[in-house]
Amino acid sequence: MVTNVVLKGFDDFTKYTETIAPNGPTVLFYFSGSKLPNGDSWCPDCVVAEPVVKAFLSEVKKDVTFVYVDVGDREYWKDRACPFRTDSRTKLMVIPTLIKWKGVQRLEGSQCCNRELLQMLFEEDD
Amino acid sequence: MTLFNNYFRKLGNFVKPFKRTECFIVLSKRTFANGAYDYDLAVIGGGSGGLACAKEAINLGAKVAVLDYVTPSPQGTKWGLGGTCVNVGCIPKKLMHQAALLGEAIHEAVAYGWQVPSVEQVRIDWSALTEAVQNHIKSVNWVTRVDLREKKIEYINGLGEFKDPHTIIATMKNGSKKELTAKNVVIAVGGRPHYPDIPGAKEYCISSDDIFSLSNPPGKTLVVGAGYIGLECAGFLNSLGYSATVLVRSVPLRGFDQQMSSMITNEMEEKGVKFQHRCIPLSVEKLASGQLKARWLNTETQEESEDVFDTVLLATGRYALTQQLNLPAAGVTTLSKNGKIVANTEQTNVPHIYAVGDVLEGRPELTPVAIHAGRLLARRMFGGSSQQMDYENVATTVFTPLEYGCVGLSEEVATDRYGADNLEVYHAFYKPTEFFIPQRNIRNCYLKAVALRDAPQRILGLHFVGPVAGEVIQGFAAAVKCGITMEQLSNTVGIHPTVAEEFTRLNITKRSGKDPNPASCCS
User: Poorest-confidence range of A99-108, B27-36, B366-375?
Assistant: First the structure.
């Protein structure tokens, strides 16, 4: 069962993380470039990955909170001081990035379109 | 393999049909295993050697499976994919060594003018340290698994053993079993810490398997063993503020250059590490307080001693994990008396079964050795290469607080091999520039070059004790590989001010009897 949350910008992201229950369901953050008027993101890799990620999640049996985070427009993202890049909880280098909250699991760029890798996000830790 | 062999194997299929369906048009298909086996290569062991071999093999078009499994330590510690180096070896060791050095640096900073509030109260938070280290290790486990999945290498988290020369059974954590066949097998199972046969060893003692994730601060620690694992652990524990005592059975760093070994143990002693020489452990018992009472015997004086510790860390050697492989089922018989596999070109007595890494007899137990050998092996198996691994002149470093880096022969081995008359040993003490202001101890900053006596004096071994010894020695390893001579080294201009430049300044020989202490720098 997937619970969907949509956030926009770094402040929203920070506020949301404070509400995450420590023993609650898995929370997956998906960082993506903001959407243009035509509905697609300015980030081509994000456009390709989004449907694959959403389709995969619809098949997941476990309880998962999927948080879509709009990081902003291209200029905001490209700035090296962008808080999504500098904050130690995200440390984004690439978008799209999928991060398992409070875990080490992370998929970047084209890895997000790989179903096998998406599967690994839900595998048991050793 | 050739089309010819493929053809005869296919004929065999008619006589003894396999259960799985086969494609019989494979005669013309350029594959390696042509469907007779599940995999072209099965690697038992997902550590440095195994993974390097697997990744190189998949790049060359082979179908590869990697088995990896960690049997929990006697204390119950286990870890993920990546082998000893990533989980309980090089990586966490270096991180803890770095933590120790940073602790020392905080105090040195004061001498340089840094205003450090309450510097006397600076303490290590053991939980924060182990959490940071373990988080890093887990992220490496993750990245490794992602890498295997992206490369389409099958990862089986099960303990592998042979059923027959081409069949392996993997037993998973839940007891279920999986059988697979492979045309080639590489044994890369590495080793685990050895536990001495004394009362209390398995019940109360820890090993390097446990120290890097220890849930409580180690406190006052007894380290049994003075090889590099014991010394490195005692070194960082002491620097982090935990009292460390080392039981030395024979000599520290047996097999290494003993003069250099004494330099680093002197440094450790001067920093507060206690050494009990010529001592072997007798027993470890748990007291009502929860602390451990260790008893040991001085084999020279026959005197028994005991003391109470919070932790006893056993570092008495490592043994290869060959027993659980059921090697007889594979027909592999080339085992040494240590239980390691004898395989000079990584090939066992069974042509399609190979071994790489710490499991090999007589080879340096180092990650880069396993990685390089694993890659070259894969290229010979699937890439038509004939290049063999060169195990000579492999550089290494002992990461004690004052580090020891070396490449080539120790002075003892060189003397044995060539005779003292045919050698010239250049040596010097030196004073790192950065040590003056905080008044760091320079007494053990020393280096030497062991060379042939006849011109141009080819260098047989380089030895360096000092800060960042690993960084200093690495480049010289390439030079030694090229056959560098003292003439060439002396004509190399140093970079100033560094500690590495001291190699270019070597000019005093042991034979001359002249004082190897420096007058001053820049002269």
Answer: B27-36
Q: Which of A105, A106, A117 sits opposite B149 (nearest CB)?
A: A117
pLDDT over threshold 60, residue B2: no
Which residues in chain B are contacts of A126 at CB distance < 8 A? 70, 78-81, 141, 157
- SS3 category, B493: coil
CA–CA dist B225, B103 (Å, integer): 25
pLDDT-derived band at A24 (thresholds 50, 70, 90) equals confident
List the catalytic residue out of A43, A82, A112, A113. Answer: A43
Q: What mean pLDDT comes out for the span A49-73?
A: 90
Q: Which strand (E) or helix (H) includes residue B55?
A: helix B48-59
Provide the β-strand partners of residue B172: B158
* Angle ∠(B260,B265,B266) on CA atoms, nearest 5: 95
- Does A104 sit within 8 Å of B146, measured CB to CB? no
Q: Contact B178/B259 with Cβ under 8 angstroms? A: no
Given an 8 Å threshold on Cβ–Cβ distance, is A105 in contact with B142?
yes
Q: Is residue B17's pLDDT more than 90?
A: no
In the structure encoding, which two tokens stand for residue B473, read together? 């020695």
Q: Per residue in B72-93, pLDDT tens?
A: 999 999 999 999 999 999 999 9
Are residues A126 and B139, on separate chains, in Cβ contact within 8 Å? no
What mean pLDDT comes out for the span B475-504? 98
d(CA B114, CA B437) in angstroms, rounded, equals 12
Across all residues in chain B, what is the average pLDDT? 94
3-state class (DSSP) for residue B187: strand
Q: Answer for the pair B281, B305: CB distance below 8 angstroms, yes or no.
A: no
Spatial contact of B47 and A92, defined as CB atoms under 8 Å apart: no
CB–CB of B141 and A104 under 8 A?
yes
Q: State whether residue A88 sits within 8 Å of chain B by CB.
A: no
Indicate yes or no: CB of B79 within 8 angstroms of CB of A111. Answer: no
Determine what percent of chain B is predicted with pLDDT higher than 70: 92
Catalogue the E-assigned strands of B135-270. Answer: 154-156, 158-164, 167-172, 177-187, 191-193, 221-224, 244-248
**Could you report the per-residue pLDDT of B421-437, keeping only the tens digit for each?**
999 999 999 999 999 99
pTM metric for this prediction: 0.91
Mean pLDDT check: name the lowest of B32-36, B121-125, B207-211, B463-467: B32-36
DSSP string, chain A: -EEEEEEEHHHHHHHHHTT--TTSSEEEEEEEPPBPTTSSBS-HHHHHHHHHHHHHHHT--S-EEEEEEE---HHHHHSTT-HHHH-TTT---SSSEEEETTSS-EEEGGGGG-HHHHHHTTSPP-
Which sign, positive or negative, has the C-alpha torsion B93, B99, B103, B109? positive
Alpha-carbon Rg for chain A, nearest whole angstrom, is: 14
Confirm whether A43 is a catalytic residue.
yes
- Residue pair B165/B331 in contact (Cβ under 8 Å)? The answer is yes
Cα–Cα distance, A19 to B320 (Å, whole number): 49
Q: Which residues of B touch A120 (CB under 8 A)?
A: 145-146, 149
Of B141, B146, B157, the CB nearest to A117: B146
Residue with tokens 């040991």: B296
Residue B149 has its nearest CB partner, among A106, A116, A125, at A116
Contact B40, B183 (CB under 8 A): yes
- Distance CA(B483)–CA(B451), nearest Å, equals 11
Identify whether the C-beta of residue B41 lies closer than 8 Å to the C-beta of residue B63: yes
